[in-house]
Design a protein that fits this description.
- About 5% of the residues have low confidence.
- This protein is of the alpha/beta class.
- The strands form two sheets. The chain has a 13-stranded mixed beta sheet with strand order 1-2-3-4-5-6-7-8-9-10-11-12-14, with no helix packed on it.
- The radius of gyration is 28 Å and the shape is elongated.
Length: 336
């Protein structure tokens, strides 16, 4: 045989062998790091990309597609999965056994689907740490989604249609450190809603319809360091609402309906403490004495201090609260 022809056949055979031994990747997806990371983001994708999915994949992201169904059988093809992102798809429901075949999963992101109701035990998964259900259509949060004494650290249910927060969360997610319930329809927080969530550090309740809070609302969350209450309908706050929150570093109260703060409300805070108060209809009369004095002592603790202004009376309208004198507040001066 012609030696050049022999070399040609050998090269073709080697190329063919390499082609067949090369790891595969699902159609309409891209893979990296020896197929351990898979990203599927083609809008034409309408079914779970099982064909070509490596069993060694540890991260799978299916986003902005037409995917409408995912099952436990689908996920059993990737038993080593650590991180699963299924956001901005067309999922309307999840099976209760969804996660049974992915024992190592610690992050699940379901942002931007059309989920309304979820079955019990759907997130009863031993290794799950971060759960994001942001921007769905969920109307009710159910503690039965979780197993007793679960390992969840972060729970994000922002941008849904929740009207209340169930009690008993501490029995299911006692390790929770971050809870985001912003941009829902919550009107009232039961006194025991956050009971014994002693590891909670960040709580976001912004963008709801909360009118008032109980004095003991945060009694059982001593590690709370960031509290977001902006863009609600708060008209007043209990004097001792923040009592016991010695680690609080950030408090957002802007864009509510507060007219004054009760004496002693903010108390003595560390130099790192920051608060927002703008966008409230502060009434600059004798009830403003506490806030005015606190602002004068802690001006660097207030974000957008110059936007904390009087809404009334008319003579003081638009004046910065910190600049108003005791006389203008109507405070009685003691005789010297």
């Amino acid at each position: 045989m012609n030696p050049w022809l022999l070399l040609t056949f050998t090269a073709l055979a080697e190329c063919s062998s390499l082609k067949h031994s090369a790891p595969s990747c699902p159609v309409l997806c891209s893979c990296s790091l020896q197929q351990s990371q898979v990203v599927c983001s083609q809008s034409s994708l309408t079914s779970f990309p099982a064909d070509g999915l490596s069993p060694n994949a540890t991260q799978l992201s299916i986003r902005s597609t037409g995917l409408s169904t995912v099952t436990a059988h689908h996920l059993s093809a990737v038993p080593l999965l650590h991180k699963l992102q299924l956001y901005h798809n067309n999922l309307t429901s999840l099976p209760a056994d969804l996660l049974k075949g992915v024992p190592h999963l610690n992050t699940l992101d379901l942002t931007g689907n059309r989920l309304v109701r979820l079955p019990p035990n759907v997130f009863a998964h031993g290794s799950l740490r971060d759960l994001v259900l942001k921007n769905n259509l969920i109307e009710e949060m159910d503690v039965e989604w979780f197993s007793v004494n679960g390992s969840l650290i972060l729970l994000d249910l922002s941008g849904n249609r929740l009207s209340s927060i169930p009690s008993g969360l501490h029995l299911k997610v006692p390790r929770l450190q971050s809870l985001d319930l912003s941009d829902n329809n919550v009107q009232e927080l039961q006194a025991d809603a956050l009971k014994n969530l002693r590891r909670l550090e960040t709580l976001n309740l912004a963008g709801n319809k909360i009118i008032s809070l109980q004095p003991t609302t945060f009694t059982h969350t001593p590690k709370l360091s960031k509290l977001f209450l902006q863009e609600n309908r708060l008209k007043g706050l209990p004097t001792d609402l923040l009592q016991g929150l010695q680690r609080l570093e950030l408090l957002l109260l802007n864009q509510n309906q507060l007219q004054c703060l009760p004496s002693g409300f903010l108390g003595e805070r560390g130099s790192s403490f920051q608060v927002t108060l703008a966008g409230n209809p502060w009434v600059c009369d004798e009830k403003m004495e506490f806030l005015k004095k606190w602002l004068s002592v802690h001006p660097h603790s207030v974000i957008f201090l110059d936007e904390v202004t009087c809404a009334g009376p008319e003579a003081l309208k638009h004046r910065q609260v910190a600049s108003v004198t005791d006389g203008e507040l109507g405070l009685i001066q003691s005789d010297k």
